[in-house]
Predict the structure.
Amino acid sequence: MATKLTPIRIFILVLVACIVIFALGLVDRGPPAVSAVTRHGFLSVEGNQILNHQGQAVSLAGVSLFWSNNGWEGERFYNNAALHEVAWEWNAALIRAPMGVETPGGYLEDAESNLARVETVIDAAIKEGLYVIVDWHSHHAHLYTEQAVDFFTHIADTYGEFPNIIYEIYNEPLADTDWSETIKPYAEEVIRAIRAIDTKNLIVVGTPSWSQDVEVAAQNPIVGFDNIAYALHFYAGSHGQELRDKAEQALNQGVALMVTEWGTVNATGDGAVAAEETQLWLEFMRRHKLSHANWALNDKEEGASILHPDVDPNGAWSDEDFTQSGQLVRAIIQDWHLEN
């Protein structure tokens, strides 16, 4: 006699089938059920940790775009479709928009075009539920304090009400740029302008030697303002345990760090993927709950680019469109929210 398939038996069979399929890896894990910003809300700093709106330490993963400058070709990726792909196909939590400052083609030469690109990214990030690092991308930002104040005042006035915004006010000060005499006073002036409008959103301050001397900033941190973190940058082909030790020292001194730029290759932006050192850095960032943005969502012919030259900048990329670094980075980002 045939067994009657009652509703409860059908339910059990379907449930068992789903479990088997998932165990075999036949179901795509897909994006999170809610966006990163919906899940975490306004970010804040307490001690050496960046927290979400529930007071939990949070580690976010995403990518940095290339310089916004006119004619540098990375600006092609400052579009809605590319950000949608990053958000929902890669499960990214954040995007970085580097406002190229200097000439040729930067904000100082053409503020209108560069600002329009960055605002396109911010608007798309808000729509997609991504955090967006608004980056004053300069090695000499202290020379343009007035322009930086104007720029971040505009961003704060336009977008400061949204929890998506992260201000990165100095990308990479050079090795000979003194923290106490130059970087810190610049940062305090820009922070003061932002906080006059936006009292909540996270502000990230660059540190000496291409944002590597984080322990120097930690010895004389910025005080009097809430929700301040410090930028840590690394390229796995050039930077190893010595830089991790400096970062650990800074954390032990009680400041919060965010890896607003990192690469799998050499500090020149080129070379092969340093797989072993990249893995050590990933373990370090997981252990310390550090958020990070990989350099760069671009198709320039160099090792750090996520995509091969001449791809369509509007997303829908196939596996063949990704460089060796890009394949690795995409996989890291896709799995990060499952592990952290």
